[in-house]
Design brief:
The chain is of the alpha+beta class and 230 residues long. It contains five helices and eleven strands; from the N terminus they run E-E-H-H-H-H-E-E-E-E-E-E-E-H-E-E. It is globular, with a radius of gyration of 16 Å.
Length: 230
């Protein structure tokens, strides 16, 4: 467990995590000083999305297959259009197609790009507690973009609120995505025990990126599930 971020200040912010043999996650709650549309993003964002960036740690070749093993555990097939979000970022940067979205997503994308770990970031107020992590049931789907396209997440480790799945290591749900008025976010680092220490390393850097632009970052407490599926 890292010690560089703040201890939780919000007693209500608790997330239950179903038992999983591979998942190694850290979940953050971030309060932003202004709505995202009024907040300046990372000053060096263009550099981070260039081929010349020098990240604070390396991304060894073992990261990609090990992350895919995490997603594959529940029966999900992480390939093609369903590949981990972190792989999409690598491809987009190589094709010079990455740019700023908003401060919260930019911090998420930079940390995910260089760590190789998928990271979800959702608007806290677009969802309804209780929040939990678990494997989505077969046939689970949600819309992931404004045009109404859906992704089948059956068998995928996912983030849920009271209404159902709303985020994951491939694509987050359109229902809970950040927007110009977002002031609080939940971030899930989809790390794996197969990459010992990498989740904590990523969390340290990710939290520092958010703090550098005014975010107040707390780690969300986790607990075992009670009677919820997944």
């Amino acid at each position: 467990m890292c010690s560089t971020w703040n201890k939780p200040k919000h007693k209500a912010m608790i997330i239950s995590i179903a038992p999983h043999p591979l998942l190694d996650t850290i979940v953050f709650h971030t309060m932003w000083p202004k709505p995202l549309d009024d907040l300046a993003t990372l000053g060096d964002i263009a550099h981070w999305f260039s081929k010349d960036a020098a990240p604070p740690f390396e991304r060894p070749d073992t990261v990609k297959p090990t992350v895919r093993d995490l997603l594959r555990h529940g029966g999900f097939k992480p390939s093609g259009r369903s590949k981990p979000a972190s792989e999409y970022l690598v491809s987009a940067v190589a094709k010079e197609k990455m740019g700023s979205i908003n401060p919260a997503v930019d911090c998420c994308n930079v940390a995910s790009l260089y760590s190789g770990l998928p990271i979800s970031v959702v608007d806290l107020h677009k969802g309804t507690g209780p929040w939990r992590l678990g494997v989505a049931e077969v046939g689970s789907r949600y819309v992931f973009n404004p045009s109404g396209q859906e992704i089948d997440i059956g068998g995928l480790i996912s983030l849920f609120d009271a209404r159902g799945p709303c985020g994951g290591p491939v694509k987050d749900s359109q229902r809970t995505k950040t927007h110009p008025g977002t002031t609080e976010t939940i971030s899930v680092i989809w790390g794996t025990q197969g990459l010992e220490g990498r989740t904590a390393l990523t969390a340290d850097w990710y939290a520092s990126l958010m703090r550098s632009i005014g975010g107040v970052v707390d780690e969300i407490k986790t607990t075992a599930p009670t009677d919820q599926p997944g």
